[in-house]
Amino acid sequence: GVQCAEDAVMAYKAGLSGCVLSNHGGRQLDTCRSGIEVLPEVMEALREAGATQEDFAVFVDGGIRRGADIFKAVALGAAGVGVGRPVLYSLASYGDKGIVRMVHMLQDELMMVMRLSGTPNVSSITSQHVITKNLSDHIVPLPADNLVAGTYMPLMPAARL
Predict the structure, then answer these.
(1) Active-site amino acid positions
(2) Prediction pTM value
């Protein structure tokens, strides 16, 4: 996945049709910015290089959990988004019906955000609908593992037993 504006411009100049902004789910590049954080600078650099959204598509992969996340990515210039973990969780928990339900939930949430934002269709979503000045200010806390913390005895060195 692309992680900076310079790489996206290189991809455009090399004749590619698009790129995917990704930190690989934070597993391999956990200290890197997410795709949504990189998106505004990538879109600005591509515009300066002469690219249009029609001839070079930018996709955001990772961090998409709600319809509002899709709205934000589209507003900032993404042609589409990758939805990884919600699909895996839905499939593992509920099978193929879980995936269908997850897609319907994302659609419903996106439609609600569009209604509340006064955007009747996807093409009417613009960067004026989102605030980008604090994209890099958020810190996502790691979830607590309550099962381990409250159920299992902690491991102790043999000397403390």
Answers:
(1) 24
(2) 0.79
